[in-house]
Design a protein that fits this description.
Elements lengths: L1 H19 L6 E8 L2 E4 L4 E3 L2 E12 L9 E25 L2 E27 L2 E18 L2 H4 L6 E3 L11 H7 L3 E17 L2 E18 L5 E18 L1
Antiparallel strand pairs: 1-4, 1-11, 2-3, 2-11, 4-5, 5-6, 5-8, 6-7, 7-9, 9-10, 10-11
Length: 241
């Protein structure tokens, strides 16, 4: 009886080991739901109304045989990552005795790639769990509603929930904040985990970083830059092949 149990245990271990040694699917396409926060040093604080992202990439495993029959170290290269989020806020505008609240929409779009290490554990055939960290160089751009249409006269009061006035704002800065489009290089990081069974995967990751945007000139004539910071989770459903 002991021999039967011993032989059965060996056979089961052999089956599990052989199953785990089959490399998991390497190429991934992820469809993300995005929730993010955006802020800068000038006092902007916004939370996204909604967002979405698409990621396409490939995992390059660094060794053919898994360690301990189930663990693989790899290098993830997300070849293409497109991220979009919509934000909104309310401004109070007053002039000539009238006061109104106007809604301004901000749209932030980013295109980039990711590169970083990953660890994948495959306990049984077809089922894998992967954890990863990636650095993500990105071109980041944002577009907003026509602020000049809201600011009917620059002598009126203009505020984002704090009743600040434009009387203390320089003409150059006013010109900058009323521009509808800005863009620049963004440096982002991604940390996440995914579970995939055969060709279906689910996962969650945190994405954070900043983009430097030009905002006119400083008093010494140098270009004034403001960091636009973004952070938040992305939850995704994906396919692997």
């Amino acid at each position: 009886m002991k021999r039967v149990i011993y032989v059965t245990a060996i056979l089961m271990a052999t089956v599990f080991t052989a199953s785990a040694q089959q490399a998991p699917r390497r190429t991934y396409i992820n469809f993300n739901y995005v929730s993010s926060k955006m802020d800068n040093e000038m006092g902007l604080r916004l939370k996204s109304d909604y967002g979405a992202a698409l990621s396409i990439g490939h995992t390059y495993y660094l060794h053919r045989k898994p360690l301990w029959g189930m663990v693989r170290f790899g290098l993830d290269w997300t070849i293409f990552d497109l991220n979009f989020s919509k934000y909104s806020t309310e401004y109070q505008v007053s002039g000539e005795g009238d006061q109104s609240t106007e809604k301004i929409n901000f749209y932030k779009a980013e295109a980039g790639m990711h590169l970083g290490p990953s660890v994948t554990v495959t306990p049984v055939k077809g089922l894998s769990v992967s954890g990863y960290y990636r650095y993500a160089p990105t071109y980041s751009a944002y577009f907003k509603d026509d602020l000049e249409a809201v600011l009917s006269d620059t002598k009126g009061q203009f505020a984002q929930k704090d009743a600040a006035t434009l009387d203390n704002v320089s003409p150059d800065y006013l010109d900058e904040i009323t521009k509808r489009y800005k863009g620049g290089y963004g440096s982002y990081q991604v940390l996440g985990v995914s579970v995939f069974y055969k060709f279906i995967s689910i996962g969650v990751e945190k994405r954070w970083g900043s983009t430097s945007l030009k905002y006119g000139e400083a008093e010494d004539g140098s270009v004034r830059k403001v960091k636009l910071k973004t952070s938040g989770p992305r939850v995704y459903l994906g396919v692997r092949f």
